[in-house]
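Input/output pair, single chain:
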Amino acid sequence: MTGRLEGKNVVVTGGAQGIGLAIARRFVDEGARVVLGDLNTEALAAAVTALGGDEVAAGVTCDVTSADDVERLIQTCTTTFGSLDVMVNNAGITRDATMRKMTEEQFDQVIAVHLKGAWNGTRAAAAVMREHGSGAIINLSSISGKVGLVGQTNYSAAKAGIVGLTKAAAKEVAHLGVRINAIAPGLIRTAMTEAMPARIWESKMAEIPMGRAGEPSEIASVALFLATEDSSYMTGCVLEVTGGRHI
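Output:
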């Protein structure tokens, strides 16, 4: 049976681990070829191997705050595999602290990676896709950008900004056949979230009507939907994947 992304070429930033790798794995399973961008070169090499090697995957060391790096990432996809069909702007970091204790550097770092990084990726991908009259861009926001979470003035601001970016950019390129949507995950079980102190984890779990954390594969399923023609009449949307948290 043909995969739902057979013949499609995809770029995933922050693709060497966590949600980004889960999305890449699901897309490869559905027939896509993927180019992963990440700063962790060792994890990048391991991810490419795990996905099936050079025939279906490539890795590029990429700092998403650099427009030149992002351009090079996308160019790798178009020169290696022939086109760019789907762009997933997933790269992110956390620098949690209360506003009183947060440094200006911690604020700037998170805004740069999440918001400027998503803008760099959206801008560069849309420039390529508009020439072909088709393409899907998926930006990773967060429930934190909807409700605001204590200790995350930087992260909440960046993730809310991604929503605005997604909606504005979607309006600019919709008539060119390019769709731009966002996913807002809630508590997802990754190495980063599992490093939280137990009391914080439990307090977040108590807010989830479904009573459990989500899995990276569940974000990947939604990303697959947004990448395919199943969502052909959707653009500028934000899909919450939260187990009912903060509804």
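Residues 84 and 128 are 7 Å apart (CA to CA). The chain has one domain: 9-240.
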